[in-house]
Prior knowledge:
- The structure is a homodimer.
- By secondary structure, chain A is α+β, with helices and mostly antiparallel strands.
- The first copy, chain A, is 36% helix and 20% strand.
- The relative contact order of chain A is 0.14.
- Strand 5 of chain A pairs antiparallel with strand 5 (108-119) of chain B.
- Chain B binds a DNA duplex through residues 2-9, 23-25, 37-42, 44-46, 48, 65-66.
Amino acid sequence: MRTRKTHQTELVMQAVHALDHPTASNVLDAVHELDPSVSRATVFRVLAEAAESGEVQRLVLAGSSDCFDITLCKHAHMVCSRCGAISDVDVPDTSALQRDAVGVKGGRIDACHVQFFGLCPECNRGEPHQNQ
Amino acid sequence: MRTRKTHQTELVMQAVHALDHPTASNVLDAVHELDPSVSRATVFRVLAEAAESGEVQRLVLAGSSDCFDITLCKHAHMVCSRCGAISDVDVPDTSALQRDAVGVKGGRIDACHVQFFGLCPECNRGEPHQNQ
DNA sequence: GCTATAATTAAGACATAGTCTTATTAAGGA
DNA sequence: TCCTTAATAAGACTATGTCTTAATTATAGC
Lengths: 132, 132
């Protein structure tokens, strides 16, 4: 369990809050702008621990590397097909989906993961491509 | 475009058909049992080309490495939380989900990816753990 | 403020997935 | 059989993520 308050942890958590659905690498870049001496392993570890403790949410997405979300309540995400940006999406009902799903007989379905693909507001407006 | 019929391509395609939702590494292992001289790059390339041409379907899943599916019709998948096995799942209706989803204003939702987590028949029966 | 101790870190090795380059091999038409 | 060129083997390379280890440092107790 994290007990000591360190310079590095503060920088990482600040970055997660400042950025929108950042990957570990995004956080690393932001942290390095303030302090290039912080190691890659520390950023990955601090993020993993924060996700483990429930302080942030780790988003495991199809086709993207893991992102971190400070919004803890359950919601779905859209991945921009053009720039890769992650946007929040509210889905009214996914339980119906799970109920109606027909799996292999003998198997058991526990959870349902819904993810959308599309264009983020910027890319939809035809604005210059901005990769995360 | 693939024009020549080679030993390596035959082995790879045979393996994809023999295995159930294999990853590229699964295919590599199977191919290596018959011919250890086939290179890793060849297996990845042949699979990528087969997916590109529509001969097989590349499954890009959350939390798993890409798998290859010989079933071309659209369906969802369940990832076994215990052993990682992929099972096919039929979902009656996902268009409703996309219609009802509320994204960021200005953005556009184009596609919907549904993935389930649960236990495959073997793991649900409490049979010995078998990792892919 | 000083010291001891144990949590935290930096550095880099390691694992895995996937792509790319290049020299070599071999498929298949002439 | 010979040629052309598609396809391959080998391995470099990128990226994400984890793990190990020795060094650093936060903080509790004095």
